[in-house]
Amino acid sequence: MKIAVLPGDGIGPEIMAQALRVLDVFKKEGMAIETEQGMLGGGAVDATGSPYPEATQKLARESDAVLLGAVGGPQWDNLPRPQRPERGLLGIRKDLNLFANLRPAILYPELANASSLKPEIVSGLDILIVRELTGDIYFGEPRGISVEDGKRVGRNTMIYNEDEIRRIGRVAFDAARKRSKKVCSIDKMNVLETTQLWRDVMIELSAEYPDVELSHMLVDNAAMQLVRNPKQFDVVVTGNIFGDILSDEASMLTGSIGMLPSASLDENNKGMYEPSHGSAPDIAGKNLANPLATILSVAMMMRYTFNDEASATRIETAVKKVLADGLRTGDIYEPGTKKVSCSEMGDAVVAAL
Ligand code: IPM
Ligand code: MG
Asked: Per-domain residue ranges for the chain?
């Protein structure tokens, strides 16, 4: 199993270091894992002029999976758009055809008080957001800023074809079959034709999944329902831009975005695994970051790309154990628990494994 390791910027290297220690436990036990490091994001721009350099493209294409820390930081915000770290992230998603982004929002019982919502609203929360990742207004053409009739005009294009909708729909229905068999598809069909097609295709597809209950919700209502009664959701499927926004909202229901892993998969379950949070430049290099989302991303890699449910569960159980033991990084700390650093959290997970 060849894994491309891309630590990235900000807290990326420190959280990645802890995830690699977790992988080392499996390596020492004899699992055939080979890792190779590469550059992505701001550091890559500084070193090579490109946020997704050719060497990284080659490495990513020939690997079975990619493990990513985080990219970006204020020092790169004013670069021309093609050189921005975010472009590296969008570039690798598109290049590897990682169209299916799975973002679980799970509330660990120990963290019920870390949520900004009342514990009774969020306790037991277990939502899977399935976000389409290589289409929509993120990639649609035409796009750009131009001058028309003496005025500057900004333009992006929201576009999906039916094949793109169907393949992400299948990912959602298949995932629901392994859960509580409910899919809620999010659109804005009352205004946007692209999403009328989205809803039509989801309805057609649901005929192939009679055992899964399909419902629909408009995105504005979904944003409200996520904070009003989030436990009504099981699998949520939506397009790239709505999924970007709703997944950040859902993450906060769980108390800390620092806990949430994600997987981005192609048709063959090759995947890129990364924490849902960003590069947190304000705490970078201080050994304060929460490495659990990255460690849980390793668990998702075991599950989805390596088809190794036992190792995935083992990592998740180790994380639950350190939380039950009262260890907390700053983002999830509350009085009565023990505040630990990023590397101490890594120590504890390795010991629990
Ligand atoms: C995410 C991020 C990215 C996105 C940015 C950094 C380009 O917000 O993964 O959700 O918009 O997809
Ligand atoms: Mg986002």
From this structure: 1-98+290-353, 100-265
Residue 95 CB less than 6 A away from ligand 1: no
The CA–CA distances, whole Å, from 3 to 37, 44, 270, 274 equal 9, 19, 11, 13
Instruction: Say yes or no: CB of residue 249 within 6 Å of ligand 1.
Output: no
Closest to 327 (Cα-Cα) out of 341, 343, 339, 342: 339
Annotation: CATH topology of 1-98+290-353: Isopropylmalate Dehydrogenase (3.40.718)
From the list 159, 129, 167, 140, the residue with the least C-alpha distance to 246 is 129
User: pTM above the 0.90 mark?
Assistant: yes
What would the pLDDT profile of 222-275 be if each residue is shown by its tens digit?
A: 999 999 999 999 999 999 999 999 998 998 888 778 889 999 999 999 999 999
Architecture of domain 100-265: 3-Layer(aba) Sandwich (3.40)
Domain 1-98+290-353 and domain 100-265, same fold? Reply is: yes
